[in-house]
Amino acid sequence: MKILHIISQAPDFTGSGKFIQEILKNAKLNGHENFLIAGMQSDFNIAPSIIAKENCISIQFDGKDIACAIPGMSDAMPYKSAIFSTLSTSEIEHYETVFENKILQALNLFKPDIIHTHHLWIATSIALKAAPNIPIVTTCHGTCLRQFYLCPHIGKRVTKSFKNIDRVMALSNFQKAQIVNIHSIDPKKIDVIPGGFNDKVFYFKKKEFKDKVEILYAGKLSGAKGVPWLLNSLLKIKDSPFRLHIAGDGSTNEKQLCLDLAKKLGDKALYHGPLSHEDLGKMMRKCHIFILPSFYEGFPLVLMEALACGCRIITTSLEGVKEVFGTIESDMIQMVDLPKLETIDMPYKKDIHYLETSLAKIIEHMIQTVISNQNHDFTTAHGFSTINNLIANYTWGKIFKRINTIYNHLDLIN
Asked: What confidence category does residue 379 fall into, taking pLDDT thresholds of 50, 70 and 90?
């Protein structure tokens, strides 16, 4: 079938950007014809391997189609971006007009059978208005729910249109409950389908151990992702035998804060910048521990990628994470409990010391676990069979079969 894909930000760099790349690839492998509408920085060029230029319409920011930088679904993005909550009414109205015109252009050129949008936010609301007779499915990545609270004036406008949506794909049951609560969408229309990982890129290879435990953080360099918390925790155990690898990017101010903290660790912290999926897979196969100290996530797919590469995991016990890992008994996974947060993605200042001390103790314990198991073989780890079975269900091949079922259902009602 002919599928029009819509994302309001760059189809790269972020979780949703990588997600849509895999959707495009797997849809093509399953015989579908793709067309993409995406927001892009003025200097960004989408790779032909993702989609042919003639099958893509870009909405360019930074003074091209829209004057401001791309408003990110997260307020801290790994590239120059604006913030939805700071946009004026006229800027939002212009944003809506440009997206509507581009969607109408794509509808006329491509004549899709179905539409797959990303994020329950402005672009999806516009698509519902522009194509009332074409079935639409939306993947909720979680950040759009966060924006609803940060921008209630926009949230009230878009939520009215979501009653007409045909299907929604949530990343977890917890997220499904949030969608029902926030947007009053019929729960029967919501399928829980997480993202997948590329098992050709993320796979296990026995790790070497020399004189240091290699630790990896990969993601945005921001406070909401918990990077300053992680760095301050490592400063408390600076004498332990570890080396931290940091992969990712962020907005100028938050990124600089993180890099300044990393400098305090001296040669025990290496910054690699943003990595391709292939390079991230190579890094994960070298590292012993992967840490995700985030204060807000849907379900972070990077945890599955790290597990597939044989990394031990330290992560915050967010609802989506507990849903997947909560019943698994394994020395490969350690979850960090969070106190009540002050905002949707930041803790109270009074709890910072407790958080840093708790994380430092857990990291130190995991470092000693790695040292005690220098000949660690992923296949002999406690709980391996459970973890291996879990990982097998999250390959993109398995996940896309479930998405394809939704596509076929939508095509039947077209």
From this structure: low
| Chain segment 276-291, per-residue pLDDT in tens | 889 999 999 999 999 9
Same-domain check for residues 115 and 160: yes
Contact at 8 Å (CB) between 117 and 136? Answer: yes
Determine how many CB atoms are found less than 10 A away from the CB of residue 230.
27
| Tokens 């590469």 found at | 309
The string of DSSP codes covering 303-347 is HHHHHHTT-EEEEE--HHHHHHHTT---TTEEEE--PPEEETTEE
Count of structural domains within the chain: 2
DSSP code, position 351: G
- The enclosing domain of 399 has a CATH number of 3.40.50.2000
For residues 142 and 264, membership in a common domain is answered with no
- Above 70 in pLDDT, residue 263? yes
387 and 248 within one domain: yes
Q: What whole-number distance in Å separates Cα of residue 360 and Cα of residue 366?
A: 10
Closest alpha carbon to 45 in 30, 31, 58, 32: 58
d(CA 47, CA 29) in angstroms, rounded, equals: 17
195 with 320: CB under 8 angstroms? no
Same domain, 388 and 401: no
Q: What is the pTM of this model?
A: 0.90
Domain that holds residue 227: 213-392
The number of helix segments (H) and strand segments (E) in the chain equals 14, 17
- Identify the three-state secondary structure at position 179: helix
What are the pLDDT digits (tens) for 320-374?
Answer: 899 888 888 788 899 999 888 888 788 899 999 999 999 999 999 999 999 987 6
